[in-house]
Amino acid sequence: MTITKDVILDLLPLYQANEASADTRRLVEEFIQTDPVLAKLAREASADAAFRAEPVARPETERRAALARTVRLVKRRTFWFGAALASTLMPFSLAFADGRITWFMLRDSPMTALFFAVVAVTSWLVYARVRSQLRVAGF
Predict the structure, then answer these.
(1) Burial of 99 per CB tally in 10 Å (0-12, 13-18, 19+)
(2) What pTM does this model have?
(3) Residue numbers in the chain where pLDDT is lower than 70
């Protein structure tokens, strides 16, 4: 069986990531020695991979700012969840009297119930937006 340049190009990422077996590493190294163009390509790819693998060092002030923003978003998320939950349940306020359930707001003040329903929808939307911002941050 003949090993072609295309086979070596397919194996090169495994070779550079140190995930290839000893036999595969030896095969790639032998082929690279016979092909100067492929050897140059392998060196450039290794340099690029090493460059990408280095973690980016962030200044302390940038890390603190990111942490402060995340804490702020978590607090906002908590607030909006509470507001959304409370305003969702408010129109369904009830009491037990004389063995019956009495619906206060829906019966006695339908406009106030509608107001709380609008506040609930708005609060859930804001909560969802803050939650999606936190998902980007990984929380």
Answers:
(1) exposed
(2) 0.48
(3) 1, 46-57, 94-97, 101-107, 137-139
